[in-house]
Structure to design on (415 residues):
């Protein structure tokens, strides 16, 4: 514990460290300490000074730390000044980006309130005006981009969706899954669909559900192409149309569900008939009439069940025929797939299958296989033309097709 004033310690150490002849003696006479005590004080002061950097922070470290804290302080002040002085242009940009990401106007205002002082937060109406103005500006840019990209669209998947019974004519490019059309009304007639289809001058193929309006729209678009190119020597490319597999499979599944519901309903009737027979026996009544009805009900249930099982097997065969590969992993062709459909369709009995059978018998149902085999050489040629990575992809595709079509591939050749 320090019991002497600091000045006394330093004075005693100074007398010793000065190494002046007689300095220690004079300091002893002045302070009243013995010469031995003065030397001890000097040793302790030197030791304390020497050990201080090891236990504390050196001057150089203090200087570096001070410079770091100054830089951090300046960065914080800069960030705060930018936050406080967030320009209106930046606020507009944030509002536009937030709206494009699906945020509501209220959510955008809440986000702005986090980074802005309360007095500078824009109102919901102001944010709404910013978003509307940004939409008008971007619409002009998007129209230019649409015109530049329209010639690259070769295949389209078309269908209608409804909002409050109002049709929205939709178009999606199947490779990129890009949403290319979303026209609101006025209807789904052939004329309306023709206006949508005519936006893509190089369109070659349409995939749809076979609706009359869509079919007529494709017909009208082809007629408009022929009329526009009558003066040219080159014949216009006609738009072909194929049925999408989704709607066909969905209709088949719906019909199968109706068949199984009939089976379930008939089984319930038979079970109730058995219950009446048991009740008549308990009461000692004649059971010949109710027993006969129960027997007929069970025979009808068995007949419907057998038909449902046959239909189930046929549906599995149809589902496989509508795919790309058979059970052994070989790539399907139209003839092979059509043969499977022809074998399966007769197993679908009853009025429940009328629409599904009509769709399955349509030649456009297997158009996806036709296009696959027609375009496969073009795909290889285009890919090889890319060079480098394109050639690598082509080699991979070639190996894949060889495995898929090899008669010895078996299940090992499946992708």
């Amino acid at each position: 514990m320090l019991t002497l004033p600091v000045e006394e310690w330093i004075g005693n150490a100074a007398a010793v460290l000065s190494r002046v002849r007689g300095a220690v003696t004079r300091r002893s006479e002045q302070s009243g300490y013995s010469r031995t005590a003065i030397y001890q004080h000097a040793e302790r002061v030197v030791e304390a000074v020497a050990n201080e950097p090891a236990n504390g922070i050196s001057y150089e470290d203090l200087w570096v730390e001070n410079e770091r804290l100054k830089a951090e302080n300046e960065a914080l002040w800069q960030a705060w000044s930018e936050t406080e002085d967030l320009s209106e242009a930046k606020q507009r940009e944030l509002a536009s980006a937030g709206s494009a990401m699906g945020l509501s106007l209220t959510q955008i205002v809440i986000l702005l309130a986090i980074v802005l002082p309360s007095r500078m937060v824009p109102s919901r109406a102001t944010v709404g005006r910013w978003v509307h103005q940004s939409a008008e500006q971007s619409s002009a840019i998007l129209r230019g981009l649409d015109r530049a990209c329209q010639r690259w669209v070769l295949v389209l998947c078309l269908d209608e969706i409804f909002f409050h019974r109002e049709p929205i004519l939709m178009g999606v490019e199947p490779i990129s899954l890009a949403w290319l059309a979303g026209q609101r009304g006025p209807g789904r007639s052939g004329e309306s669909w023709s206006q949508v289809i005519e936006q893509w001058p190089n369109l070659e193929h349409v995939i749809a559900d076979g609706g009359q309006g869509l079919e007529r729209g494709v017909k009208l678009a082809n007629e408009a192409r022929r009329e526009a190119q009558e003066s040219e020597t080159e014949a216009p490319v006609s738009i072909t149309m194929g049925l999408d597999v989704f709607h066909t499979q969905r209709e088949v599944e719906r019909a199968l569900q109706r068949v199984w519901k009939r089976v379930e309903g008939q089984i319930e009737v038979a079970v109730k008939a058995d219950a009446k027979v048991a009740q008549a026996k308990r009461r000692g009544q004649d059971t010949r009439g109710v027993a006969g009805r129960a027997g007929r009900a069970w025979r009808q249930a068995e007949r419907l069940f057998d038909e449902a099982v046959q239909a189930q097997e046929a549906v599995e065969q149809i589902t496989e025929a509508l795919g790309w590969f058979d059970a052994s992993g070989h790539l399907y062709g139209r003839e092979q797939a059509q043969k499977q459909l022809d074998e399966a369709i007769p197993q679908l009995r009853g009025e429940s299958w009328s629409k599904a059978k009509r769709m399955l018998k349509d030649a456009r149902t297997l158009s996806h296989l036709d296009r696959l085999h027609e375009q496969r050489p073009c795909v290889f040629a285009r890919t090889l033309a890319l060079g480098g990575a394109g050639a690598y992809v082509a080699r991979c595709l070639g190996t894949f097709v060889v495995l898929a079509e090899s008669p010895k591939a078996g299940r090992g050749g499946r992708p």
Q: What stands out?
A: The CA atoms of residues 100 and 131 lie 9 Å apart. The chain has 15 helices and five strands.
